[in-house]
Amino acid sequence: MNGVKIEGVSIQWLGNSGFLLEGDGKKIYIDPYQIGEEPAFDDKADILLITHEHFDHCSPEDIRKVRRSDSTTIVPESCSLEFRGDARRVAEGDILADGLEIKGVRIEVVPAYNLDKPNHPRGLGVGYIVELGGLRIYHAGDTDFIPEMETISTDVALLPVGGTYTMNEEEAARAAAVISPNSVIPMHYGSEGIEGDPERFKTLVHSKNPDINVIILDS
After folding, report:
1. Which of 33, 75, 98, 190 has the fewest Cβ atoms within 10 Å of its own Cβ atom?
2. Is 170 exposed, middle or buried (0-12, 13-18, 19+ CB in 10 A)?
3. Beta partners for 87?
4. Domain spanning 3-214 has what CATH number?
5. For position 2, what pLDDT does the model report?
6. Does the reported pTM lie above 0.85?
7. Residue 142's pLDDT is what?
8. Whether the predicted pLDDT of 215 surpasses 90
9. Would you state the torsion angle of the CA atoms of residues 215, 44, 18, 139, taken in this order, to the nearest 10 degrees?
10. Are 48 and 63 in contact (CB under 8 A)?
11. CA distance linking residue 98 with residue 106, whole number of Å
12. Does residue 135 or residue 70 have the better pLDDT?
């Protein structure tokens, strides 16, 4: 399956770190990349969230496919891509405490960075917590297992597991155990140079906390 419905909210994995969240009559795209055919107008984004400027997260071609003229786009301050229409630039500390409400959807901006890799220095990108249909969904962005994850409160966690540029399966399983969501969905694996094993991640998560529901989606 490439999607799952949790408490009335649909979560579809688009591949890499891309997701489409649907609930409360809203469609929220996060880091769309290589999505194929352009969606119909009614299936395009009410809100578009970009975690950082790397090509497989901030893809102009895919952004053009999913954006409408009235879409609201959130991008990190470091992102050099210029957007037309309704766009807002954020940094990790901007709205940590109170959150931001866009079209009735509450969004929090949280840190995302590498500890021992050069790819994602602190300040390059962010993660997001989206409140939709009464569900809190955490998209970690490209990140290692960072101390700030101890303060994350979420029902669903979307965590990278591919290693190389982010957490590997073991690190992501430790992150899942600390965050302790009801459900966790692995992402950022299966593309060239990123060979993470979601089944290994699932086994590792359950060895630490068997109560966490690990959902493996197909892109």
Report:
1. 98
2. middle
3. 73
4. 3.60.15.10
5. 82
6. yes
7. 92
8. yes
9. -70
10. yes
11. 9
12. 135
pLDDT at residue number 186? 97
Domain residue extents for the chain: 3-214
- Residues pairing with 137 in the sheet: 130, 156
**Three-state SS for 60?**
helix
DSSP track, 102-158: ETTEEEEEEEE--SS-SSS-TTSEEEEEEEETTEEEEE--S----GGGGG---SEEE
User: Residue holding tokens 């970690």?
Assistant: 140
Q: E-assigned strands of the chain? A: 3-6, 9-15, 18-23, 26-30, 47-49, 72-76, 86-90, 100-102, 105-112, 125-132, 135-139, 156-160, 183-187, 213-214
Name the range with the highest mean pLDDT among 35-39, 84-88, 154-158, 194-198: 154-158
CA distances from 141 to 52, 65, 89 (A): 8, 21, 16
Q: Is the pLDDT score of 213 beyond 90?
A: yes
Nearest of 121, 108, 116, 135 to residue 49 by alpha carbon: 108
Mean pLDDT calculated for residue range 143-167 = 95
User: 48 - beta bridge partners?
Assistant: 29, 73
Please report, for residues 40, 117, 155, 189, the alpha-carbon distance to residue 194 in angstroms, rounded to integers and kept in the order given. 31, 15, 26, 5
